Amino acid sequence: MYVCLCNGYRDSEISEIARDGVRCAKRAYFAMGSGPRCGQCLDMAQDIIDDVHESESSACSSYPTANDRQLAATGLPVGGGDAPVTQRPQVTFSKS
Question: CA dihedral in degrees (71, 73, 79, 85; nearest 10)?
């Protein structure tokens, strides 16, 4: 489907640029060869880019990271948001 009629950019082209790491519609347009002209399509282009990065993020959310392991020690939820809360470790203070 055409997203940008001025430049002739399609949703598939915008998605491909987003998969290459671009997160901004204007930067995506420049990466494809020409910046935005009238700008009427930028919101739709940004939605496509956001959808690509959201699906990438959720695809990786099931794999724990070092940060997830650190968060698990605090008792906060980790991973994709649906992971169970782990037990908070007992902290004891001793007077020295």
Answer: -120
